[in-house]
Write a structure and sequence with these properties.
The structure is a single chain. The protein has 255 residues and is of the alpha+beta class. 53% of the residues lie in helices and 10% in strands. The protein is built from twelve helices and five strands. The chain has helices spanning 25-34, 45-54, 79-90, 97-115, 123-133, 139-156, 171-183, 195-199, 201-211, 214-230, 236-239, 250-253, and strands at 13-17, 38-42, 62-66, 72-77, 241-244. The chain has a five-stranded mixed sheet. Helix 1 links the parallel strand 1 and strand 2 (38-42). Helix 7 (171-183) packs across helix 9. The radius of gyration is 19 Å and the shape is globular.
Length: 255
């Protein structure tokens, strides 16, 4: 809720996603850091299936963009595309062309993390493939080492705040940290939940640095409680759609 000192402005955006962090986490965090007001709607899996069958939704996350009069301007999909859009509106995509290039490289590399997690209908084969991916010369190991090298290069260049591009938080951080947390969340069989803390402590420290940004820490605490409340039938309706206070996006408000 907005404080007494904070002017509550009309949201320009609505994020629609399942009642988890998932691929929408990076977008929610970027909007939070940018200070944009936005609506956030939890969509159940049953609701999503019905919407896809009806042709009213394609995939999640979904971003709805509103004009200043509340009219829907656009509905878009694809988490990284949405993230880059928010980055461009807020300046969280880097201070210059070279930083923006680095941001894009990090986001694309973060996507490669999940390409390197093989799947197989045979449980034993899946275990074998995933253990091979995190082995010393495995494909996932190569991706994590590449990210570790970028983090170390950024620090060696004189950037001491612990982020991965430049010396301030960018959408590369909300995107990469969300991907790394998902990697070790327990969602993927045979990918140890202590993979980062045990084998890549610098990457774990990096994730902690992003999580400890004040606005992100406050959002994550409130969001965690909201996810719990959504599991309670008595509270579910009250937390299904929540408005996070902030400013109206100037670019959208002009429409």
């Amino acid at each position: 809720m907005a404080t007494a000192e904070q002017k509550e402005e009309k949201p320009s955006f609505r994020v629609r996603y399942f009642p988890i962090g998932g691929r929408a986490a990076q977008v929610r965090l970027a909007m939070t850091v940018a200070g944009f007001a936005f609506e956030d709607e939890f969509v159940t899996f049953a609701e999503h299936r019905a919407a896809k069958q009806a042709g009213t939704s394609i995939s999640l996350p979904e971003l709805v963009i509103y004009a200043k009069d509340g009219k829907q301007l656009l509905k878009v999909y694809q988490a990284r595309s949405i993230l880059r859009y928010i980055g461009g509106l807020s300046g969280l995509n880097g201070d210059n062309a070279m930083e923006r290039l680095r941001v894009d490289e990090i986001l694309d590399t973060a996507d490669d993390i999940f390409v390197t997690i093989p799947n197989d209908k045979d449980a034993a084969k899946k275990k074998e493939l995933r253990e091979a991916s995190i082995a010393k010369d495995g494909k996932l190991t190569q991706i994590l080492n590449r990210l570790l090298a970028r983090l170390q290069e950024n620090e060696a260049a004189g950037n001491k705040n612990g982020f991965i591009v430049g010396d301030k938080l960018t959408i590369a951080d909300t995107g990469l940290s969300s991907s790394l947390k998902h990697l070790v969340s327990g969602f993927f069989d045979h990918i140890p939940q202590d993979l980062l803390s045990k084998d890549y402590p610098a990457l774990q420290k990096y994730v902690n640095t992003v999580d400890n940004v004040d606005s992100i820490k406050k959002f994550n605490t409130a969001f965690g409680q909201r996810m719990q409340d959504f599991k309670d039938d008595a509270k579910q309706a009250s937390v299904k759609v929540v408005t996070y206070p902030g400013k109206t996006c100037p670019d959208v408000a002009a429409k």
